[in-house]
Structure formats: C-alpha cells, structure tokens
Amino acid sequence: MSFSPSFLPAIAGLSFAIVAQAAANPAAACQSPVLRPMVPIRFGDDAANEWTTPFFEGAEYDPAVTDPEELFGQPIGSRLASHAEILTMLRAMAATSDRVKLSSYGRTFEGRELVTVTITSPANHARMDEIRENARLLFDPRLASAEVVDGLAEGQPGVAWMGYGIHGDETSASEAAVPFVYHLAASTDDSVVAALERVVVVLDPCLNPDGRERIRSMVEQSAGYRANLDDGAMQRGRWPGGRGNHYLFDMNRDWMAGEAPETRGRWARLLELPPQLFVDAHEMSGLDTFLFYPQASPRNGYLPERLNHWQSLLAADAARVFDAFGWGYYTREWADALYPGYSDAWGSLTGAIGMLYEQGRTIGAPLQRESGEIVSYRETVHGQIAASLSNLMTFAQNKEAILGDYVAHRRLAMDPESKLGRRAFAVVPSRDVTRDARFLRALLGQGIEVQRADAAFEAKYVEGALGERDDTLEFPAGTWIVPAAQPQGALVRAYLDFDQRLDEEFLAKERASIERGQGSKIYDVTGWDLGRQFGVQGFWIDAPGVAATAAGPLVAPSGPVGDLASAYAWVADGDDSRSLAFAARAMELGAQVHVSDEDFRARGGSGALALPRGSFLLRRHENEAGIEAIVAQAAQESGAVVHGVSTGRSADEGPDLGGGHFQLLRRPRVALFSNTPVSRTDFGHVWSYLDQDLGVPVTLVDAQGDRRVDLDRYNVLIAPPGLGSILAERKDALVDWVRGGGTLIVIGSTAAAVAKEDSGLSENRRRRDVLEELDGYGWRAERERKAYEIAIDMVNLYGGAVDAADATAPQQDSAPGQAPGAAPAPESGTPDAEGPKAASPAAETLDEWRRQFSPEGVILRARMDPAAWITAGVGAHGDEEDQPLDLAVPFAGHTVLMPAVRPALRLASASELRLAGLLWPEARVRIADSAWLTVEPLGRGQVISFAASPVFRGSWRGTSRLFGNAVLIGPGMTD
Prior knowledge:
Layout: H1 8-24, H2 26-30, H3 68-72, H4 83-96, E1 100-107, E2 113-119, H5 122-126, H6 128-139, H7 146-155, E3 158-164, H8 172-186, H9 190-198, E4 199-204, H10 209-221, H11 261-272, E5 277-284, E6 290-292, E7 296-299, H12 307-325, E8 336-337, H13 343-349, E9 353-360, E10 367-368, E11 374-375, H14 377-397, H15 399-414, E12 423-428, H16 433-444, E13 451-453, E14 457-464, E15 469-475, E16 480-483, H17 489-496, H18 504-515, H19 530-534, E17 537-542, E18 548-550, E19 559-561, E20 569-572, H20 578-588, E21 594-596, E22 600-604, E23 607-611, E24 616-619, H21 627-638, E25 641-645, E26 662-664, E27 670-674, H22 680-694, E28 698-702, E29 716-719, H23 724-729, H24 731-739, E30 743-747, H25 749-754, E31 765-766, H26 774-786, H27 794-798, E32 831-832, E33 835-836, H28 843-851, E34 858-864, E35 885-891, E36 897-898, E37 905-907, E38 914-916, H29 921-927, E39 931-938, E40 941-946, H30 957-968
Helix pairs in contact: 4-8, 7-15, 8-14, 9-14, 12-14, 20-21, 28-29
Active site: 370 (proton donor/acceptor)
Region (Disordered): 807-843
GO biological process, one term: proteolysis
C-alpha cells in the first residue's frame, strides 16, 4: 500500500492526536469512535438470517419444567450447543418434569457420557417394570401363550427409539433433541398428553459426542464477524470433520459388528426396552432439501413384510407438515434398504419401523443454496423436529396395529418352516480366541441366541464359507450353533448368509444406469457376512437338534504358563492374534523377539507344545537380566498365553529353537500418514488397529506438512488410500528410505499409484497400463496354480514323446456382458442379418468400459502363498503341508494390481472369484488373477501393497492379521 505525499501529514497529525489524547486520558482512548471496541464473535445464525418461526406454534408449557432456552441464553438451534450444554439442559428438564428420566449407558473413547432420555406419562413411568416385562414377551413370543401376547397390543404402550446425530458433523439432529424433549416434557397440549399415554419415547440425543465436539471446535475456531454462506467453506469444517467417532469409525456402518463401544452400549440399551419405531436422524449435502423414507430399491429380503406400508404412512403425514411450511423434501431416491449394518436397518430387522431423516446441513451457520435461498441453522433444526413429532404422533395413533405387525415379524423369524428355514450357523472354535470372542460378542450383544454343542455331532447339508458343500460333516464338541429360527432370526440371516443376491428387476435398472453413463445406484457394499469378516470357521447346516448349552461370552486362558524363572525360553502361539500384541509389547520393553518360519514343537512344562509358523520366541540367553518381568508384563498387557520351555531341543524332528528358522525381529517404529487427501475412514480403521489391537506406538504424519520430515526416525511408513499425489511428490525421498531398510505399506488407491512405472517403488503395474502384456501375467498366474499340482511324467522326463503343452493358455477376456469362459468376441466386425457388427474396441477403450462396472463392495476368493512370511497365522492350515489356502477378502473399486513377483495373495480365476456381492462379468474379467497382496524387496527394504483395506470397517479380522504381520514382522524381514 502507498500514500501520496499530501496525505502523509494528515495521517501523522491524526496519529499524534490519538497519542496525545491517550496520554492525557487513557480511558478516553479506549472509547475512541475511530477504533471500534472488540466484541466476541457471534457464533451461529447472524441477525440478517435468523429463523424466527416457533418450533411449536401456539404451544403452552408447564412453567414448573425448566425451559432449556433459559439455560442456553438464546434460541436453541441458533448456534451449535456443546455436548456438555446438551446434557445440562436435559438434566434440568429431567429434574423438573415427571415425564422425563435420564439414564447413562456408557462412555466414548474421549470419556464423554452417553445418555438416553425416556419420556412418557407419569403413569407409564410408575409401571415401567411391567412395561419392560411385557416388552420382553413381545420381543420373544415363545415366553407366553399367543392369547397373552396378542392381548398386549391394547394396554402396552409402543416404544419409539429416536436417535440423533450418529455422524457428529450432522449437527442439526442433536440440536433438535433438546427442544423436542422440552415439548414432550412440558407441553399441556391434549394431543401430546394422549400420545405419551400410548408411547414410551427412548431418545438418544447425541449418538456421537466425540465427533460433534470435533466439528464444533472447528466451526468456532474458523468463525468470523461476517457470515459465510458458502457450502464448501472451511468454516464448516476440515479434515477429518466430525462424521466419525474418536477413531473416525462411521458408526452408522457398525451395527452388525459392534467394533465401537458406543454401538455396544446402544445394543444393550435397546434390548432393555425394544422399540417398534426406530428413528435415525441425519444430514446430507447443504445444497439438498430433506429426505425421509420409504426406501429405495434394492431391499434386504429379511425386512418385515409390512415395513414399506408403515414407512409410506409416516411419510405421508410428515409430508403434510412439510407442505404447510413450504419446505422441500423427497423420498425413495437414493437411500436403499439392502445393507443391514445401518442404524435404521437394525431397527427394521428386529421388527420396528425404521425411519431415516436426511436434512440438508448448514453445520451451525446460514448457508446459501444454488437457487439463492438462504437457509439458517435454526431452520434445519426445525425440520428435524417437525419430522420427529409427526412420526411420533402417527406411531401413537396406529400403535395397536404396529405392535401386531411387530409380533408377526418376530413369530415368522422363529418359524422353522418359514423362509428363514431349518438352518443354523455353526462355528468351530479356533486357536485365535480373539477373533472367536469378538464374533460371539457381536451376536450375544444383539440378543442373538447362541448354543454350545455338548458333544460331537454329524451335520447334514453343509455349506462352507468358500462354497464347499458336503452332504454330511462331523463337528466337534464345543461347536457354537446359531439357529436361524429364533426371535432375532432376521438378524441372523441378514448378517450371516453367505451371499444375498439382488433381484432381477433392480439388476436391470442398475445395468441400464451404468451403461447409459449415469453411474451405479448402489449406496454401499453388496457383499458382507459376519463370519467371513471376523475370519471364523463358519458353516451353514441343517439345525442338528443336539444337546447344547446357551453360550456366553468367550473366556480364554491368558498370561504366562509355567515357571518363568526356570525357563530356557518363552513361546507364544502364532495362530492366536494376541501373540502379535505380546511381541509388540515385549519389543517395546526391550526384549529380543524371534518369529518362526516353520511349524515346530517345543518342550514345555506340561509336555510338548505344537506351535505353527508365525509363533514368537524369546530366548533367555539373548536378553538381559529381568527378562522374566518383561515377559510377564507383556503377557498380562496383551492377554496372550505365553509358555515357558525347558530346552532349546525340539520335541520332534522339527526345528530346534536355536537354529535358523527363527528370524530376529526389529522393533517397529511406525508412522501413519494423516490429513487430507487421506481417506478418513480408512485412516481411522488403520489407526484403531495399530493402537488398540497391535498396541504399537504410532506417529501421525501430516500429509500436508513439512516435506522435510525425517523419515529415518521410522522403519514402517503406512499410506492409506488417497495419497497417490503426495507420494509422487516425495518419491525420491521414499525410494531412498525404502532402499535404506524401510517398510512402506500402501493400501487401495495409494497402492495403485505406487504401481505406476515412474514411481520407482514397485514392479506391480495397474492393469490399465499393461493391457498389451496380459497374456504374460495370465501365464504367470496359471503357473503358480500348477505349482501346487505337481505330477511327474517319467516317460516325458527320461525319453519318449515330449509334451509341448507345458503351460495352460491364460483365460481369454470376455466381451462386455459375457460370462467368463464364453466365446470371445471376434476381432473385427462380421455382417449378420441386422447389418455389420461393430468392430472390436481397442484394448484401452475396452478396459475403460469395464472399469465402469467396478464393484461397490464385494467378497472375493484369494489364494495365499503358504511360504510367504506375511501369511503366517492367517486361516487354517491346508489339507497338506505347504498347500495354498483360499481366503475370503474384501474388495471395492477399480484398483487392479498386476504383479511381477509371486503375490502373497492372488485373487482367484474368473470362474471362482466371486464369493458374495454384485460383481458384473466385466469387473470379474478385470479383477481375476490380479494381486490382492504383494511383498516386494527394494534395496534393503520392501514395499507391501494391499489392493483393498485389510482392516475394512475394523471388523475384517480374517485379513487384519496380514496387516499386523506387515507392521510387526515386516521390519525384521528386510536385509
């Protein structure tokens, strides 16, 4: 900035006058009309964009009940309330209203309290024990006669579960909870009083307090005196936002597995008083309006038959309310009913009416939509309240019929002759007690009945997780049996069926949408099941009818076994994933730890111990005095079973404990890339696994930070999806670091970026970059398969005719829409009755076409290399020593890696590839025989590439061990 010479004296004179005045009267200087006084920034809606319409027009309230706005100091919804403020206002209403009771049901990772507010009439509160007992009979109609259960619909109030803000940055939902509770707690309106006689409302005001506080902090820290109406402004949040919990888990996808403590606490609370209405309030893009159910296609086949009827009725009533306000809204456009892991899906599968709200969000401040309309924060809060009150009133009016349909759904689930059938899910306990325990916790925590077989039994019509089928199969005593015919039977089948298929009508629409350039309409994964996700040995069988005992949570041995003081060495079973945490903690405490590359038998205090490859060994002579205390501490903190062994001599002809089959590990020093453009949920799953399961210290490295980060501080660097451009900018430094001995782990799209030829980090290649070389890659894949089918032809070897077919030709690509193995399309067009056919497209065009059909989320078959160190402890052993093992793995997107070296996991051929989910033939052709996991040496280091996340949604325990091995064992496997 510059000033003209004539202006300078005026500035100088003004400055002198201000200084002179301040010297004479300091107080006057503070009140100068030239310098305006500082005032605190106003958060939330500004004065020009206030929403002043009352939430409840003309309502009158009991003055004895605390008005939350008296505590808040301004209209609720005009700014973001903190979680602490929300709890304070709710507690004040509970203390002054006989309609309200507040209960705590848990804590978040960051220590914030999780609460529910129960609102109903005083008379219902007085008989709540009776209401709970009757609810138990409705939940399990086996407990009373049909006459008794059916008679409950008249006098038993319905239960409405209303949950707000499971995504923390969808803030209007939790904001709406407070005035909604006040209206129910204090309104003198006859309709409210009558509704609370017929309904018990269990309201969870803030499902994700940690995420809410994260986004609230961001919004307040970036606020200014001027309102910013831009929907994309950083003032509305930045990476990682507030969607997830502390570890950034999307808890709206966690209802099947229950990896988050918030979810598990919620299950328990719901089972105390199971609902018949289940409201799940969310937000969507601020440029959108308001969506509520009924749902779009496709639909899960185990949902209640009358669900669409009731959703349509509730929607019609809500629509009339929205019409009166002149608000925009819609139904059925994109929120489908397929995936059973959502909040409302859980409610619906248990027999309730699941209702989703999606309000266009503003995140605590006014926002301008594309039409020019300005939407205040308080108006979005009003939308949530209006939908909630309308649905609640409709539920109350139709309570008897809704309870009748609820009981009918639960009876159908218990009927062995229904579509749920006479089947049961059987799980054979494994040596990995952690995985088994998590699986049982997920089922038992949701009220799913599990039995434990008292004796061995023979099951009929057995279907395995990898497609195996047997007429009969023997199962051992202790097998867990989950009958499909039980009150929670819809959850059992929706969660555990191996392959839930889409109907032909929807598939035709989906195919047309893709082929016409409109993209997929699939909203989430199409392949899932808890058995394969947790990696348990699960089978569908005919219900065996054997003697069994109700199963409880798995309690397994842990800690040191034997006399630590006299042990020659200590070993931990590598098939138990707790052993990884033990080894990590022992190294952190300074111990020298080895890992085995073969099975071995050690001599323990109670006899010979059979231990698999991947087991961990600590030798006394390599460690300093006090190693016993380290072993004990590491065993206690990890929960692992650690055996003291008496000698280094093998108990059989296998490896002795002092030989070369035990590789010395290096303590992992781990760095994890974070910040944009990293995928926040994939980052969260990795971070959670490292911190909670593996128990290794991890440094979060800012992907946008200083390029001079000293990589030499770390020997493991993890790059989740989304980091391709960042790694490209730093490739020279990364190449040097890996060559110097570092282990670089890349996942998903980042693995695809590293597979580019100019990265200098990998010999893998993206399929799209090697289309002219696919025959060679196919030949390698076939030779790998043949390597496990060795047969010596003595005639050809020592004389006679030579078999020229020394290799099987790679599978031909299929044309678009053709099934794999079908006759290939001609190389050029040929005429027919319709006229000339189109010429075969160029390879690049064909591959681009096929990429459109990349799956949203499926389960695929992969074959493990049994000799690769990274596959130790994964799955069961093959039928024969050194035989490959098939493994179910998650896959999504179009990252297809063509490996130059034998992959640790290679995806199966096209005919065997799909295990579950929608996988179009075009995608099958692209993905078949590609690599899911590779380990490539580079200098003295290595690059480990995962085509998809091995810790997807935190529940893929069947593949997370691979990631744990990469982090913990990897540094010891470099030169």
